[in-house]
């Protein structure tokens, strides 16, 4: 992709320079708003066990514990603590992602409307008289979370690697690719999977070893390996992992679009050239293409049966119009019943610069016009387009009047 710049001016990848000033700006994300309560102990979280502290923190952040996903590949700042029996647990909602390793630290990724992903790390309080929590805004996370995998903006990374029995990675898949368009057979390497899906052609619940130069799969079932008493639940359900993948792809594309738009306006002194305007149009196309699931891979025959407790939690935080919501699940052939991402309500979409959001809304309206063979909307029947438009009109406050 072309980088927008002018002469020796900035490009959108210079996230710590004007106009982005990533580390100089004070975050306003959901976790940043909670930080002072944690550091002054006014949040009153139990500290007698790690699991009780974790569940209290998740409740405070309104992150469902049922979203638990377990990763045994050593792809984390705390890689020395990760083993097949002591995997890293991840939890998430639409705004905050939390990592926990028994015996380690808490890692938080929160979505800021202007900055994108913001990273925090802190020790879990332990013992009868634990030390006060000291939250650090992590910088080392940017080595991976603002690189090739995220489009060089602060975003989410979902790795799929084949781990060896003694640690380390033997192979990797879907490099520099994130989202619901990644083939299922390239996902889940280094992850535990529980729940039901009608396919086995993936690298979940497996490790590898080389035999005569060939990579051989070794079954690594969560039920036999994980020390479950260290975690709040005995699940690493398939459905949260599918939705997490979708959200990561959305965040990375939208944050990149935001950074490109800010850079274009900064370089041009608030004025877009024909070239930069065309670049923003391309970015808007890319965002709408993802919003409407144009390239979503189909679920295998029989679909997916998700954890009922997680489904209830996922649906609880929904915006409903006439009993219908963008969080209504399908799970037979695809993720969502109405193919427009609920992440359109997320902070990163809300914070899109006006020059970009106007283009996205215009392109979205074109794609959702009934009876039109628009390349971004022709996969949607007219009745589905109508429901999506109805929901968006009722739930988004900044839609243009032409909608």
Give a verbal description of the structure.
This protein has a domain at 238-395. The mean pLDDT is 90. The chain has ten helices and 14 strands. 29% of the residues lie in helices and 14% in strands. Helix 5 packs antiparallel against helix 6 (274-291) and helix 6 (274-291) crosses helix 9 (354-367). The chain has helices at residues 30-39, 50-60, 142-145, 222-225, 238-267, 274-291, 308-316, 347-350, 354-367, 382-395; strands at 69-71, 88-92, 96-100, 105-112, 116-123, 136-137, 161-163, 169-172, 196-197, 206-211, 214-219, 304-305, 320-321, 324-325. With 403 residues, it is of the alpha+beta class. It is globular. A hairpin with a 4-residue loop joins strand 3 (96-100) and strand 4.
Write the topology of this structure.
Blueprint: H1 30-39, H2 50-60, E1 69-71, E2 88-92, E3 96-100, E4 105-112, E5 116-123, E6 136-137, H3 142-145, E7 161-163, E8 169-172, E9 196-197, E10 206-211, E11 214-219, H4 222-225, H5 238-267, H6 274-291, E12 304-305, H7 308-316, E13 320-321, E14 324-325, H8 347-350, H9 354-367, H10 382-395
Helix pairs in contact: 5-6, 6-9
